[in-house]
Task: inverse folding
């Protein structure tokens, strides 16, 4: 081949020697263009489950051993047939559980029931123990405190009895004092009424007539000067057949009188009547003190 011209990149046809035209071969004849060693290497590289380095190492043929074309194609086809197919996912098996599964289910259920029962029993036992402890503690506290309470109650009972007795004494004393005070006030009120009421002597004289004889010839009436007119008018009207002697006594309290007859004497003075009432109330005459 001649040297090419430096003036252009196109080589004239007359300058080329020993060339031939090229056309692409079909895919079906692709394996015919490969050597037997290349066919074996390609088949080994298609095996699944190997890394890229392992495939390349396995694909490298031993150059020292020549392999015929027919034998190489047969080896490549055998490699493809021997390659394991990718496993398909088996559908989930449907059916009754096995005896082992039933035993496992039974064991799990028994263990769950055992744990729940144990927990419930523990809680119930704790509650019962707590209640029993409370009752025992309360009983021990009662047994321990009962003697002390009994002793304290005896002391309170004795104190209550003493208090009741003292209260009764105070009540009696107070009642006596109150009675004396009330009686003193009553006497004072009676004296004041007799001093201002001119007719206060009439009920007393009316009561005295029942104690005098039905026939009385002579009698004497001693009375306060202020009550003489009222007493004389009443007795002369009620006992006209009796000859009365009228005696005025300034020392006598108003509202009272003394009637003297041959067979009877009536002391109806205010002091005598108050003394009788005082004795009836249980008050001594010496204890009578009229309020100022």
Result:
């Amino acid at each position: 081949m001649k040297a090419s011209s430096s003036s252009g990149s196109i080589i004239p046809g007359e300058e080329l020697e020993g060339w031939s035209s090229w056309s692409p071969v079909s895919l079906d004849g692709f394996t015919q263009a490969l050597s037997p060693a290349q066919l074996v290497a390609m088949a080994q590289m298609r095996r699944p489950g190997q890394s890229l380095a392992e495939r390349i190492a396995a694909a490298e043929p031993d150059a020292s051993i020549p392999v015929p074309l027919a034998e190489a194609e047969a080896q490549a086809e055998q490699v493809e047939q021997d390659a394991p197919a990718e496993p398909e996912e088996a559908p989930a098996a449907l059916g009754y559980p096995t005896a082992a599964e039933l035993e496992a289910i039974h064991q799990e259920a028994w263990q769950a029931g055992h744990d729940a029962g144990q927990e419930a029993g523990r809680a119930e036992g704790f509650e019962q123990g707590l209640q029993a402890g409370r009752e025992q503690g309360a009983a021990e506290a009662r047994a321990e405190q009962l003697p002390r309470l009994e002793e304290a109650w005896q002391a309170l009972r004795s104190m209550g009895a003493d208090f009741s007795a003292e209260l009764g004494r105070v009540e009696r004393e107070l009642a006596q004092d109150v009675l004396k005070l009330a009686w003193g006030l009553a006497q004072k009120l009676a004296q004041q009424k007799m001093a201002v009421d001119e007719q206060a002597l009439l009920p007393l004289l009316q009561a005295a007539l029942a104690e005098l004889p039905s026939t009385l010839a002579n009698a004497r009436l001693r009375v306060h000067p202020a009550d003489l007119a009222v007493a004389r008018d009443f007795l002369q009207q009620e006992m006209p057949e009796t000859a009365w002697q009228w005696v005025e006594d300034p020392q006598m309290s108003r509202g009272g009188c003394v009637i003297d007859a041959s067979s009877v004497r009536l002391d109806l003075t205010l002091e005598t009547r108050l003394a009788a009432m005082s004795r009836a109330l249980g008050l001594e005459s010496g204890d009578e003190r009229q309020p100022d």
